[in-house]
Amino acid sequence: MRYLISAALAASLTLPAAAQTNPGQARFRALYKELVETNTTLSAGDCSLLAQKMGAHLKQAGYPDADLHYFTAEGHPKEGGLVARLPGSDPQAKAILLLGHIDVVEAKREDWTRDPFTLVEENGYFYGRGASDMKSQVAAWVDTMMRLKEEGFKNRRTIKMALTCGEETSTAFNGANYLATHERALIDAAFALNEGGGGRLNAAGKPLMMTIQAAEKFPQNYQLEVTNPGGHSSRPMPDNAIYRLAAGLTRISGYAFPVQASDITRQYFAKLSPQVGGEMGAAMAAFAKDPTDKAAATRLASDPSYNAILHTTCVATLLNAGHANNALPQRADANINCRVFPGTTPEQVRAKLQELVADPQIKVTLADKRSEVPKGPQPINPPVFAPVEKLVAKMWPGIPVVPSMSAGATDGAFLTPAGIPTYGVSGMFGDPDGNGAHGLNERLRVTSAYQGRDFLYEVVKIYANQK
Amino acid sequence: MRKFAVAALAACLALPAAAQTLRPDQQAFRGIYKEMVETNTTLSSGDCTLLAQKMAARLKAAGYPDSDLHIFTAPGHPKEGGLVAVLQGSDPKAKAILLLAHLDVVEAKREDWTRDPFKLVEEGGYFYGRGTADDKSVAAIWVDIMVHLKQDKVAHRRPLKLALTCGEETNGAFNGAHWLATHERALIDAEFGLTEGGWGTMQENGGKRIALGINAGEKLSQNYVLEVTNPGGHSMRPVKDNAIYRLAAGLLKIGAYDFPTQSTDASREYFARLAPLTGGEMGAAMTAFARNDKDAKAAAVLAQDPRFNAAMRTTCVATLINGGHATNALPQRVTANVNCRIFPGTSIETVRAKLQELVGDRQIKVTPQAARSDPSPAPPLTPAIMKPIISEAAQRWPGVPVIPQLEIGATDASFMTPAGIPTYGFTGMFFEPDGSRLHGLNERIRARVLYDARDYLTDLIKLYAK
Question: pLDDT at position B376, please?
Fold first, then answer.
């Protein structure tokens, strides 16, 4: 209820919302603004600069230099990060790690309604690249670390925070992978909290559930390539690389991979079912009971978010062909981004794509390998889940806490195999349309940002003194 | 017969053909040609000005005073310059002849080519390299003629003007011929000009020469941009509406469409005269089409050959696509370039409307790019122009006719003719059915064709210059 009231309040106020916030929120908002307004795209941004800015705030809050570790890898001067430590009182207790990536997906000013690198607050939303993915959560991590230091918080376990670069681009230098490989001791922890979990709202803005991400699909890019001798465009030939590729892409677009289920997705749909209600809720219950129920799966697939965790998905994301406007194309390439359901191999998907395009002249190859294929989901770990359940019950009574499989990939793919099981916990509620993450006009509800900040601060304190 | 003997000889020689069979003057020409091909003049990474300077240095060495060598560049285009060279004639009243060629070439990616596109490779009787045909073959011959006439003090009445320009290959780029016609009209003033185009036809593998061509009108080159925008989103969460799939579906519809057949007086004459030389089913179709351009059966046969297909209708083809901004994001914007070659008499807007109708999707926006030039009238094929061409051809290639044809490409003649310098697309070169792979991979020209055209054009220009 509290949620709805604040949403209504925010919508009806005409004064700048920032003016309404308390001093703590104002400082958090300033951090968030600085994060969003420091461009950290691979093409034109600078993660190292942003890591230094965040480190400076921590230093001001009282962190000694010895507890602030900036890192950059050779050849990647702008793709650095920061590991900060707040030492705990019990040297035997294992640390907890707060993980966040500070890089963002590319954003072109001309495509966006507002400047993507200016934090704009409008109609109850924060807009900007990274507003949702994931500078809001990074702002909450830095804010929490500052507050704990300033307040002289007594933590039994050491609290570590790692801000890294390169999460968003599968071929780029990945800071989390670098830390797991080269600085394993520095980030050692019992478990890590990361993006990937969070609250889900319905279209009307009503909270439905809070998820803890405990599994993820495997991201794999495939390259489709057609070559052709080309020629002068004044003399078109029947065989054309662009048309050949277009026909293959059209065939892929019409295909849906077979429906699959895991314990986590079944639990997820079972717990979500009463929250959603209606026909969709009934489909969730039916699917949780019997994943071979075709009618239920079809109903679920009508919602892109549910569809994404029902099966492997593949979608064309990049297309490039030709070398001059007056020449027949010699080469046409497409990138197909697949999200592979656990248990399916990347090669099986490649073979399926090659079969779908039905044209041996369209070569389908694995484009890259971001991380190792995970062996299985993390355990649904009570010490990680219990504090979240307790806090959610307090802040959003009646909202279930649900283990989830993320359709997206996170840096958990590097840390979990390195022995730091990583869970997605954010406390921030997102809209059913995905909040424009990676897309145009990315946004987050103002209330979600502030409540998420409160939630993360409290939950870190619980973990820090957990027995 | 001579042709076959030469081809057979070339094929059985294991030693580099160049060194074995060339006269000294041909070797000198080959040096000019090699320097041209090996100087990259693409818009993306080349330098036309540099090549213009290299050619000016050659002309200077041949005896041209600096006052007759005009290297030009327009402000803001330092690498897109060119050269105008003037060879004074003996009669101060006589009007000049303009030899026009473009120095720039279409982009070529090393990884896509079998050989380095910016290296002149002679192999199996062909010269390979970007620009070996389009248009460094012509440019090298013009420079060679200018050198020869000066160096060997060949008597001639009329002045000769050479204009080497940049930007012919890229719509939207700075165009040197256009610039000269606008800003240096007096410098290039001439009674008429010769430029690329009008390529002749020959059988494949260096077979029989069938016909020489001379341009009688050009199709209009016009680019259209197709654009789809979409809110995008995270690729882990695909949605039904996808900008790439939408554009792909639209392009497939354009690819499947054939514009209606059309003809001009010149194109009907072209098919009528080519018919007996071609013979067989294709020849019969040419005759039928020349009689009735709505003969669907004849058109279907002609359409099997891309050259003939292009000579009887507007054609449109997708040449570029660019879409998406990250591997892991749904595409927000996808654009394609569709290059159309519009038949004389059809408007740019008519074609745009047809493309929009074909894609059948209002979310695919079809917009014309800036037009390259206005449609240019065909220069008149007067006896003064045609007689030397025909007599020289008859002497070298008995029985090979010179046939006026509709140019399916676009040339810089479209800037010169409207500026009052009627410019003819005529080269004396013959292309095999692969069209010399102009603009494509592994562009090439038969070495014998090039050397013969050089001899032919040299004699032709001397005739005109008298």
Answer: 78
> B44, B199, B327: best mutation site toward chain A, by most A Cβ within 10 Å?
B327
Q: What is the DSSP string of A4-69?
A: HHHHHHHHH--S-GGGGS-HHHHHHHHHHHHHHHS---TTT--HHHHHHHHHHHHHHTT--GGGEE
The values of phi and psi at residue A32, to 5°, are -60, -45
Instruction: Indicate the CATH number of B2-218+377-465 among 3.90.1530.10, 3.30.9.100, 3.40.430.10, 3.40.630.10.
Output: 3.40.630.10
Answer yes or no: do A235 and A163 share one domain. no
Q: pTM for the whole thing?
A: 0.79
Minimal-distance CA residue of chain A relative to B410:
A234
> Cα separation of B57 and B49, whole Å?
12
Q: Are A281 and A351 part of one and the same domain?
A: yes
A221 near B CB under 8 A:
yes
Identify from B135, B235, B412, B443 which residue to disrupt to test chain A contact, counting A C-beta atoms within 10 A and taking the largest count: B235
Task: Give B343-402 as a DSSP string.
Answer: PTT--HHHHHHHHHHHHT-TTSEEEEPPPSS---PPPP--HHHHHHHHHHHHHHSTT--E
Residues A241 and A277 in one domain: yes
Per residue in A8-64, pLDDT tens? 333 333 334 444 679 999 999 999 999 999 999 999 999 999 999 999 999 999 999
Q: Which chain A residues have a beta carbon less than 8 Å from that of B248?
A: 245-247, 249-250, 253, 316, 319
Q: Per-residue confidence at A374, pLDDT binned at 50, 70, 90?
A: low
Q: What is the pLDDT of residue A9?
A: 38
Chain A positions touching B229 (Cβ under 8 A) are 111
Q: Which residue among B170, B318, B332 sits closest to A324, beta carbon to beta carbon?
A: B170
Average pLDDT, chain A: 92
Q: What are the start and end residues of each CATH 3.30.70.360 domain in chain B? A: 221-368
Fold category of B221-368 in CATH = Alpha-Beta Plaits (3.30.70)
Q: Which residues of chain A have a CB within 8 Å of the CB of B234?
A: 133, 408, 434, 437-439
> Are A339 and A201 contained in the same domain?
no
Domain match, A87 and A166 both: yes
- Residues A350, B238: Cα–Cα separation, whole Å: 18
Distance, in Å, from the CA atom of B47 to the CA atom of B58, rounded to the nearest integer, reads 17
Which residues lie closer than 8 Å to A442 by C-beta, 6 or more apart?
A: A107, A116, A127, A128, A129, A130, A131, A132, A133, A435, A436
Beta-strand relationship, B365-368 and B423-425: unpaired
- Of B102-106, B242-246, B263-267, the poorest mean pLDDT is in B263-267
The amino acid at residue B194 is L
State the CATH number of the domain containing residue A68: 3.40.630.10
Q: Are residues A54 and A175 part of one domain?
A: yes
Task: Tell me the HSE value of B177 on the side-chain side, using a 13 A CA sphere.
Answer: 32
Smallest CA–CA distance, residue A227 to chain B, in Å, is 8
